[in-house]
Amino acid sequence: MLTAKTKILCIIGHPIDHSLSVIMHNAAIQKIELDYRYIAFNVFPNDLSNAIDGLKSLNIKGASITIPHKISVMKYLDIIEPMAEMIGAINTIKNEDGILIGRNTDGEGFLKSVKESGYNIKNKKVVLFGAGGAARACAFYLAKEVDKITIINRSDARMNDLISKLNSNYSISIKGINLSKKEEIKKEIADSDMLVNTTPVGMYPKVNVSPVNPLWLHPNLFVVDLIYSPIHTKLLQDASSIGCNVLSGVGMLINQGIIAFEWWTGFSPDKKLMKQVVIAELEKLK
Question: Where are the domains of the chain?
Answer without folding.
Answer: 7-104+251-284, 107-248
